Amino acid sequence: MTNSTYKISTISFADFAENLSRALRLSALLFVTVASQAQQKVTLEKAIELAKSNNIDLKIADKEIEKQNVLRKTAFQPDALQVQYQGGQFNSVDFDHNISVQQFFPLGNVTKANRQLQEELAKLAEKRKALSSYELEKAVTLAYYQYLYGISIRTLNSELNEIYTKFLRNAELRFRTGESGNIEVISAKAKVKEIETQKEQLNFDLAIYQKQLQFFVQTDENIIPDENTKLQYFFVENQENSKLENLITDFYQQQISVYQKEAVTFKALRTPKVGLGYFAQTINTESLFQGFTAGLQIPLFGGVNTTKAKAAAISISQSQLTLDKNKIILNLQKEELQNNFQKQQKNLNYYQNEGLQYANQIIDTAQKSYANGDMSYWSYISFLNQAIDIKKQLAEATHSYNQSAVELQFPTIKNN
Fold first, then answer.
1. Where do the coiled-coil regions begin and end (predicted)?
2. Total Cβ atoms within 10 A of residue 144
């Protein structure tokens, strides 16, 4: 038995995004060109279900659990069978032969301790998978709403294109009737072209967001979020212990159980082993004489296992301290996330309850006034840009709210 260190190993959305951003942008071009292929729309719950079923990291975790369960069969660990042949003049001047077989078996609770340790290791593998599954669920949720955010921006872009296309027609009409100069037409055409260019960029962004989601779900199908899903993330605050706190507590308590069983196993290895043997030999090259042997292996120098047992006890204290530290960090983090969530919620409430209404009123009033000739071109553009900016801020506020809500519901796991 050797002492080991067990650490949390989970999937990190931030780490993957930086490393794969270049590859995603390259794959985005291919995605746009094959956009006509069939796409499967999935709900968030379905996306999470697919991810937990397909994700290779979780499959690796399943194999680790399977491996630890298989290793339970190694609990009984007898020594290797000893077979020895002796030939020579050990009885007389004649050349005699001796063959002996001996096997030593562990005594005491060694087998039981090994089996219990292996059972705890299998449970630890399950706890580690639960943490990875938790982090995967968070990553899928963030990627899912990132795509919906892209859809909202594209919808806004289409709305702006409709507004400026209408503005361009009015500008061309006013120019033909001599009510305005050509500058209005040129400016309107430039704005429409700018919006069309932005639309192409938004399609690339959506392709990247889709690949981010597909990266976690890990399927060959072009799955996309259901566009009928409400853009605002549905968040229900839980006043009880968070899921992460329970997962971390379970993990480190299980880790402590492993170290406890390790200590018991090392102590059990200090017990003697009993050996049974059989021999057959000739005497004066005549007849075949047989017999049995019995013996003990006594670990006179058992200090190594004693030291390992003490080291396992120290590891227990380390795991308990790490658990205490993570609980403190998690509580502080939840306070920070709660404050940020409330800030984003208040900001979103303004744009939903007031900002959006102001933007729509500004656009309607400006369009009517400009069409009737009651407003100058430059005033119209100024008001239109103000309204557009408000709508953009609404989309950004919703996106920021979603991120803060997901972070609050799925606090980040601190790797140790």
1. 107-137, 327-354
2. 29
